[in-house]
Amino acid sequence: MTRRPRTPVAVRLHPRAATAAGLAAFVGVVAFFWPFVVAPGRFGSSLTPPLIFGSLLVLVLAVVFAEIADGGIDSKALAMLGVLSAVNAALRPLGAGTAGVETVFFTLVLAGRVFGAGFGFTLGCTSLFASALITGGVGPWMPYQMFGCAFVGMLAGWLPRLGGRKEILVLALYGAFSGYLFGFLLNLSFWPFSVDPHSSIAYLPGLPFTQQWHRYLAFDAATSLGWDTGRAVTTFLGVLVVGPAVLGSFRRAARRAHFEAPVRFEPVGGEDSQPTGTERWAGPL
User: Fold this and answer.
1) Domain-embedded: residue 10
2) What is the span of the domain harbouring residue 61?
3) Do the beta carbons of residue 80 and residue 253 sit within 8 Å?
């Protein structure tokens, strides 16, 4: 098996940042799967669990970004994050409104693959946040979309390292899988409120988990499978067609940025010279 040399990771999760990111991921999972553990209206008629969890997601995201900034991400990685977030925010309105076609996921997959799971997680959040601000799509659904894309980018960073055509094929297959995964997760956020309660695919509080799960699978297949297929096909073809070129560009940028290389400063005249108040950058070690 051909293995590609390791690319420097853009966002290095230190223990404190990793703990915060793990907490965010856990809260995200709870927010998506709340219908299987909490009934709507349990905390009051106006404050339903989705809104409560959505507020928690925003708060936890703020903690995650603060922790990642504490030594885990430098100015070069932050600049790369800003550029790719802007690109995704500009690309998203071009596809999301027609038959499930989605133009953002292939960028999340490739960036998460090259720059690491931490970068992919952060890029998924910032891309959807920027897109929501540009398109006016801010609402209770936004935290779910942010975390759905964050999971897509994060999982891409955990894929096994391969080389050549095998890598592109694996990424393309994962891109198709991520299209279905995103739709599956997002449907959980509104399923309890979108179907007639007397329907056989509606959410019914109090049912055993197996029956509730069967109802949701039927709901997802009936209402979203075609849309998710459009997203999966778009991402699969996007990775196959432009994946090699984009991967090459990302890897060249990562090598030139030296994300993980330490830097040192030394006097102009060398180690034996007396300090003069003027120093020069010696570059990455």
Assistant:
1) no
2) 15-257
3) yes
